[in-house]
Amino acid sequence: MENRSAKKTISRRLALLAIVTTLGAAVLAGCSSDNSDGGNTTAVSGSGNMNPEGLPIVKEQVTLNVLTVRWGNMGDSFVKNTWLQELEKNSNVKINWQVMSSNDWNDQKSVMLASGKLPDVILGDIAYGDSDIVNNAGSFLALDELIDKHMPNLKAAMEESPELRKISTFPDGKIYSLPARLPSRPVTQNQPVINKAWLDKLGLAAPTNIDELYTVLKAFKEKDPNGNGKADEIPSSNAGDIDMFLLTPFGITDLRANRMMIQDGKPVYYPTSEAYKEGLKWARKLYEEGLIDKESFTQDNTMLTAKRQNPDVPLIGFTYQWTPDAVFGKWSDQYETIAPIAGPDGKRYQEGDPSGLSFRRNQLLITSSSKYPEVAARWADQFYTNEASIQNFWGAIGTSIEKGTDGTYSLLKAPEGTSADAWYWDNSFRDFGPKYVSPDFEKNIKLDPTTGDGLKLQLDKLGKDDVTEPFPSVMYTAEEYQELPTLTTDIDGYIASTRAEWITKGGIDENWDAYVKKLEEMGLAKLIKIYEDAYDRYMSVK
Question: Which residues form the signal peptide (predicted)?
Fold first, then answer.
């Protein structure tokens, strides 16, 4: 996020207020939590209007203004979710939904903060991230006391899964945003994917180590596996850089995209490690022999997609993807996911998180503008049951989910012509919003193993035992957020340009020491200390 001093913050907010006046008055008026709709005149705190537990939450109806941001043009179809509708009826809490498109949100979110006119609740981590919250802490309520007094479901979830509290605790020791644990999430991130049709035509087995991978990529390059008589096969390709997953066999994993790993229980900055050096030397060999696309450093994603979905014949042999059908269009059925590739040490490594890719933070904020924080907390707590959570991830029971008499829950098939994922987004909050599915409850969820979430869980079995411990999802102080962009812009840029130079032209052995020295001169020690301090704070949360 943007680095701002106190003086710049004041100037920026004054400028943004001017923008509000000229551009955003109507939108902001709709999001303001003045609750002056005629039916919301009863103050909750100390008034006796709120029931301490159970439903309804309030005796006299209260309206909460709730803002959420949706991808692109998804719109507000999720409000038809019958669980949400039943909650509104049974809780006596009316929700005035303010739905923003992600296409417009970047222009609006700072404007809204600067105006001071915020809704009662902001739902979903796409809206405001860590640095937004840290740098504007006065706009959002600390939720610790509300959780303790009014959120028994969340408290129980935090006791069962302490990770929820760890990821939600900000550097000052307080909780400003509510977390989520998504259901039926895998352990692995992107996995190795290969063109199985090419392997079969050439009589090759799926590679299990880097030597076998080299042999396969070379055969893909030289033996015309797509059968068109042209030397147009591309063993591996990427946009803007090499595919960094190619370094995974060397133990390089980067789940948080900050160049940090955990090794032997300690944070490690991998761009100065021997493993990174050896991985780049191997990538140099692949590039030199044409096994990495020569255009990897210069093409954009549009050009890469055109190659992956070439209309005449498949062109790409090997990649790393979430699922094998993710990017290859009409050629998707030729690709399969394989087990992690073993590195020079004989070990297999896989990027992911052993605790699962389930935990999220910043899923719900209660703003300091809200007149009804206790009501908002009790309303949010209704999301933290197993049944509520699956209905806010896939869609309501009876719409997207069938509940069996044996206590199981099966996902219904999406309407013809609609992908399952798109259908779930239409019917629910999907990735966004508070939710918690207990690990024990997941055995009751039945997924189709041939598509979507069910397919990923099947593929997950290939590599879940090889997942390395990632650097955790830490948070930074306001001062650290000021320093990070200055440090990472220069350091990351230098690392990327040096990587491109070494892979395309060589020279890594001769220039390695000078490279490390240059990083030190650029403030690498200060950057690593920020990461280590954030890690220590995270690990200290119980």
Answer: 1-25
